[in-house]
Design goal:
This protein has about 220 residues and is an alpha+beta fold. The protein folds into two domains: about 110 residues, RRM (RNA recognition motif) domain (Alpha-Beta Plaits, 2-Layer Sandwich); about 80 residues, RRM (RNA recognition motif) domain (Alpha-Beta Plaits). The chain has eight helices and 14 strands. The strands form five sheets. A four-stranded antiparallel sheet has the order 4-5-3-8, covered by helices on one side. Strands 10-11-9-14 form a four-stranded antiparallel sheet, covered by helices on one side. Strand 10 and strand 11 form a beta hairpin. Helix 5 packs antiparallel against helix 8. The longest helix is centred in the last third of the chain and has 12 residues. The chain is elongated and about 75 Å long. The protein starts with a helix and ends in a 7-residue tail after the last helix. The C terminus is likely disordered.
Amino acid sequence: MKALACLNHKTLRGKAMRIMWWHKESKLRKSGIGNVFVKNLPASIDSAQLESMFNKYGKIVSCKVVEEENGKSKCFGFVQFETHNSAISAITSLHGAVFQGKKLYVSIFKKKEERVMDAFKEQKFTNLYVKNFGCNMTENLLREKFSKYGKVNNAVIMRDEEGNSRGFGFVRFDSDEDARKAVEALNGQLIGSKKMFVGRALKKAEREILLRMENTPEEMSC
């Protein structure tokens, strides 16, 4: 405890040490619970000062200001609290606060892929991906089903070389609002014995991000 209190963030061979309690197979750090992202920090703030700013809100597991190779601050960092409640308390108190002339941005940390997907979700869309319907579904029936929620510009079912339905297709609405209403109403609806899936048609880059998120182990910022 004395070493942690006295040596954490002290310089050793030109670099600031980071000292924390070691936990075998730590579920806390792997889960990301209590992990806070802080940006727009004054360039003069180092990891020790960042910890001093946040330690009043709860027990800190790890804390760092991200630096360039030359040791210059990138003006953002991460603080991981022991509990989610401590993180929320810090965010509530410090987000938007002005410190040394800088307005702080403080939020729950999200991986890059999650931030990108959040941005995708906020985008407007009119093209829907539909799957899990039977071979009896036709373009006309698909258009009729979706037209209850707004003007449909196009409805297509993907088919094999012999013209048989491959069980999925696309529906394009005239407006984003109507497309969202159709997703809310029809996603998960039973068509015979199958639950139909209805969602925004993803672009190639979005599908690749989802695949990476599924196949890449979680990385903790701290």
